[in-house]
Design a protein that fits this description.
With 219 residues, the protein is an all-alpha fold. It folds into two domains: 1-131, no CATH class; 136-207. It is 73% helix and 0% strand. It is built from ten helices and no strands. The protein is globular and about 55 Å long.
Length: 219
């Protein structure tokens, strides 16, 4: 059991550590660690590149979000494949649930503390969402709807992410999802909220950055 879990952990970390936001910003000649919130997550990438390069920069931010989410989904998928192969070809039993959880948790660790960027990273919202859409599709859908609603009303990405981090585990428990997955959703929700400590302080102080709404076309 230890060897497949170790494989899931290492693979998850290496996938999660891929610094897509940083790499995308570099394509534009920007060191994302020196701009905006100095965070390589998709939100800061979109805000910074969108402000500097317009629609092209915003699309680059969307790409960063998609790739960060893909890391989480891939970590879960690879862990499940490893588990299936181990069960098929090796003696002994492997918990597919434990493998999937290990893959996602370490992908989140890799994203937040990437070995490629001196152990700096994003807050883990996209990576968590990517993995959880595989593990908990319906609760994750509820969380996405909550995120969109809060963002459209407030224009605060951080607030929307915090609310979604509360809605996700609540939906998982209320729907009677497997206890291990619901507990994982709760742990990841707390982790994401803790990663937003500075944002919470700025929200309370009224100094958090908003995404401005597009101006209505004139004429």
């Amino acid at each position: 059991m230890l060897i497949p879990l170790l494989l899931a952990a290492v693979t998850g970390y290496l996938l999660g550590a891929l610094p897509f936001g940083w790499l995308i910003a570099r394509k534009f000649g920007i060191n994302i660690f020196e701009h905006g919130s100095k965070n390589p997550g998709a939100t800061n990438v979109k805000r910074v590149l969108g402000g500097l390069f317009g629609a092209k920069g915003k699309r680059a931010g969307d790409l960063a979000f998609f790739l960060d989410a893909l890391k989480g989904a891939a970590a879960v998928g690879v862990a499940k494949v490893v588990a299936a192969e181990w069960i098929l070809h090796r003696s002994g039993t492997v918990s597919v649930e434990a493998m999937a959880i290990t893959g996602l948790v370490f992908a989140l660790v890799g994203h937040s503390f990437s070995c490629w960027t001196r152990f700096k990273g994003g807050k883990g919202v996209a990576t968590s969402a990517g993995g959880l859409i595989v593990l908990l599709p319906f609760p994750t859908l509820f969380a996405v709807v909550a995120w969109v609603m809060v963002f459209q009303i407030s224009r605060y990405v951080s607030l929307a992410s915090i609310v979604a981090s509360v809605v996700l585990p609540a939906a998982a428990w209320l729907r009677g999802e497997p206890t291990t997955f619901a507990a994982l959703a709760s742990i990841l929700g707390v982790f994401v909220i803790l990663r937003h400590r500075a944002n919470i302080t700025r929200l309370l102080n009224g100094t958090e950055n908003k995404f401005a709404k597009k101006a209505a076309p004139s004429g």
